[in-house]
Backbone:
């Protein structure tokens, strides 16, 4: 069975993929449908959804278009999710691989370093980092990456530890392959499936983290994001529910979609496990 | 066969045209097709077949333990007038243990590691609501005594990990016998055990069967075992019965070609030919080799030391094949791993045509590695699932500086040589176990090594495949004048291919000599024990 056929067997994953594609489409189309900046005040404040033609999601406390904010925000959320996950993988995979492959003192040293990051609460560390570096997209991405790599390192290390004594790795060592070749060509390809699954879930977590930072006012002041919209609307939640509801729904759907896709990938990459589960 | 006399023809279990469907996408539609056989009261029926023959499936159906997605689609399994296939899970549970007992291949995984042995046996009574607590303990003790565990009073309080493999299998048998079942199903019960232990367990099963008058359905792949225990034999292939009859009849005058091939494939004719090496230049010289494995002690456990190799010395002449034979824990694999330098010996000397091979390390060792190669035991684990087999073979030469295109051409030639020409761009999962082992051999040959170490290279294979691989090795030996260090637990295999044999026990060499001498005139008591324990030996000798 092809990879996609196995993926599509999980109905939830297919739904997740469709939602995700819709959100990506939203991010791409945003500048075409709303060419003006989402920060621009375009109408009277506190317009309820559908009250005025052309403003199907209403306007916020300053008269900005909520629909424009959500579509532009999609781009920010996806960007931050993907980039910060990539950076976290770039830190976690090599560290975990080296620790797991060499073991011994190197492993001890690297794992104590990892634990140092793990013992500090994620969110608190992210707040501190963003506050020190000044809020901007770059600092937010970095902060999120720095707090989310330890699980990657742990996972990769565990995979390497179980794979490094496989007979095919020993065979590679026997024919005289260098450690680098063994790590990159023999072991790493076999750890990809769990890494991909973890990464899809990390994108979801990163989007949540960004929203939480923006909610606290630590977002990039120049870009519209879903978290910022909810944060700005929290004082008027009783008068204008739609200001927090629609961005909230967008976050919920994106994270849900990513989780569903992650689960589908897990099934597709481990066909044996998924058959036992169903 | 002791039970021959009281064998009556009244069946305890009778399978009628049993057909079991496999899930869609499997390599065939039915696990077993139209299988019919009876297990008569008081007899041992051996169901023999190679892996994938469906020999265990029928037993699993009888026990109601079929894996998910596999279900019977036709036929009956009649036990005491009831069709077992129509029973509900609850009714099945009542029969299991009480009237049909079962023992499995791997006693360690079948026992609960966190429960004392006595409690596990008592649990069998508890599950069926029999006896009081005190009686259960007493009964457990009686059973352990019956299955011949040394010091049963101590064993009853032991955890499974404190017992040896053979003792664990005895505990499993005690549990299976606890409720005096009429039928005992034994699924490869001795496959994971050493030969000497296997001989004891077979003896025990035969003895208990005779004493209690039970029926035994004994599933095995080994015709040697069949010769030891069976009253009747049922040979299966591809889910169908190819031959069914009295053990003596089938063993001596097999009617079916496949049965004949299986019996002939048993490395028999135990007497190896006298062979001499062509040269007398020593290739590998090992002297006074020691290796100790230390596990670090913790707060509550003492540090443990295992002397895997103690003062091991031998030398291997160019073009010679030496067999290293021993049971598990004898240090034979450690020796092999030290020779290829996957392990580093603690002390002694290890030299390869004059080069000190023991003190090399790092980059220096990497550069010399091509001189000694290894064929691994498990054909499924020894090939990287993500690499095409051509690359798997070529990676050695590539790592040693051969240009990629040239290495790939060589890999193709090597695949030709091992009989798998034109398959270089396939992935390992497209090959069978025997074919994978051929690929492993090609990989070992790719670097033109001076010495090849084969660590249990045929142990994981079916007998007929085993014979083919041994033939291939023999053939390659002639063609390429290979020097081979052949590590095995199976004396029959060693007899086929080795010029000289080294017998190891507890990390020491107890005997070494030419294969012929070791077999015909064993000096050490341990060697004699090993030879006597080979299943089916008497049968073969009687035959000769």
Residues:
């Amino acid at each position: 069975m092809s990879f996609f056929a196995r993926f599509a067997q999980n109905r939830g994953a297919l739904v997740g993929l469709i939602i995700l594609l819709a959100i990506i489409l939203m991010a791409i189309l945003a500048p075409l449908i709303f060419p003006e900046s989402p920060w621009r005040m375009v109408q009277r404040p506190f317009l309820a959804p559908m009250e005025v033609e052309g403003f199907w999601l209403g306007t916020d406390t300053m008269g900005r278009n909520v629909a424009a904010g959500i579509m532009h925000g999609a781009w920010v959320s996806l960007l931050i999710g993907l980039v910060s996950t990539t950076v976290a993988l770039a830190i976690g995979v090599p560290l975990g691989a080296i620790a797991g492959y060499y073991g011994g003192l190197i492993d001890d040293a690297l794992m104590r370093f990892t634990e140092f990051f793990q013992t500090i609460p994620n969110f608190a560390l992210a707040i501190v980092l963003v506050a020190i570096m000044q809020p901007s997209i770059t600092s937010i991405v970095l902060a999120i990456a720095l707090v989310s790599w330890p699980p990657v390192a742990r996972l990769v290390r565990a995979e390497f530890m179980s794979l490094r004594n496989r007979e095919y790795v020993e065979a590679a060592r026997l024919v005289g392959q260098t450690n680098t070749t063994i790590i990159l060509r023999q072991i790493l390809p076999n750890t990809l499936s769990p890494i991909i699954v973890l990464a899809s879930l990390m994108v979801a977590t990163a989007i949540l983290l960004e929203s939480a930072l923006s909610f606290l006012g630590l977002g990039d002041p120049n870009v519209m994001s879903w978290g910022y919209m909810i944060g700005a609307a929290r004082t008027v939640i009783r008068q204008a529910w739609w200001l927090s509801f629609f961005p909230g729904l967008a976050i919920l759907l994106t994270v849900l979609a990513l989780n569903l896709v992650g689960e589908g990938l897990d099934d597709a990459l481990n066909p044996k496990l998924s058959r036992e589960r169903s | 066969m002791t039970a021959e006399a009281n064998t009556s023809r009244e069946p305890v279990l009778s399978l009628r045209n049993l057909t079991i469907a496999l899930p869609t996408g499997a390599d065939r539609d039915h696990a077993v097709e139209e299988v019919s056989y009876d297990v008569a009261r008081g007899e041992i029926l051996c169901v023999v077949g190679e892996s994938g023959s469906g020999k265990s499936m029928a037993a699993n159906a009888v026990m109601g333990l079929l894996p998910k997605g596999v279900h019977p689609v036709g036929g009956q399994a009649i036990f005491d007038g009831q069709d077992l296939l129509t029973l509900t899970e609850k009714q099945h549970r009542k029969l299991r243990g009480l009237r049909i007992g079962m023992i499995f291949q791997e006693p360690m995984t079948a026992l609960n590691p966190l429960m004392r042995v006595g409690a596990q046996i008592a649990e069998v009574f508890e599950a069926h609501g029999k006896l009081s607590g005190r009686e259960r303990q007493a009964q457990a003790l009686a059973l352990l005594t019956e299955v011949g565990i040394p010091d049963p009073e101590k064993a009853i309080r032991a955890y499974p990990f404190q017992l040896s493999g053979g003792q664990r299998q005895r505990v499993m048998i005690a549990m299976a016998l606890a409720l005096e079942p009429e039928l005992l199903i034994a699924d490869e019960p001795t496959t994971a055990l050493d030969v000497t232990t296997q001989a004891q367990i077979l003896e025990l099963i035969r003895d208990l069967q005779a004493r209690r008058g039970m029926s035994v359905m004994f599933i095995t792949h080994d015709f040697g075992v069949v010769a030891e225990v069976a009253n009747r034999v049922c040979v299966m292939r591809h889910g169908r019965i190819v031959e069914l009859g009295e053990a003596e009849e089938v063993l001596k005058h097999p009617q079916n070609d496949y049965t004949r091939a299986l019996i002939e494939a048993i490395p028999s004719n135990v007497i190896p030919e006298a062979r001499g090496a062509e040269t007398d230049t020593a290739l590998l010289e090992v002297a006074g080799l020691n290796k100790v494995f230390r596990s670090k002690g913790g707060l509550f456990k003492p540090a443990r030391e295992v002397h895997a190799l103690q003062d091991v010395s031998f030398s291997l002449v160019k073009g010679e094949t030496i067999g290293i034979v021993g049971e598990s824990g004898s240090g034979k694999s450690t020796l092999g791993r030290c020779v290829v330098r996957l392990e580093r010996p603690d002390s002694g000397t290890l030299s390869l045509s004059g080069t000190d091979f023991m003190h090399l390390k790092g980059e220096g060792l990497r550069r010399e590695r091509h001189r000694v190669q290894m064929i691994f035991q498990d054909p499924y684990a020894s090939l990287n699932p993500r690499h095409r087999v051509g690359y798997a073979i070529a990676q050695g030469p590539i790592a040693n500086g051969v240009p990629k295109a040239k290495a790939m051409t060589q890999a193709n030639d090597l695949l030709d040589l091992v009989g798998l020409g034109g398959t270089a761009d396939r992935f390992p999962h497209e090959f069978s176990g025997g074919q994978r082992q051929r690929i492993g051999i090609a990989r070992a040959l790719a670097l033109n090594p001076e010495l090849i170490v084969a660590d249990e290279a045929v142990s994981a294979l079916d007998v007929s495949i085993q014979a083919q691989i041994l033939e291939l090795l023999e053939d390659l030996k002639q063609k390429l004048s290979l020097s081979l260090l052949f590590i095995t637990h199976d004396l029959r295999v060693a007899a086929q291919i080795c010029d000289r044999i080294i017998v190891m026990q507890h990390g020491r060499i107890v005997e070494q000599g030419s294969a012929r001498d070791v077999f015909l005139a064993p000096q050490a008591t341990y060697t004699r024990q090993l030879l006597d324990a080979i299943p089916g030996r008497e049968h073969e000798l009687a035959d000769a």
Summary: The first helix of chain A runs from residue 3 to 9.
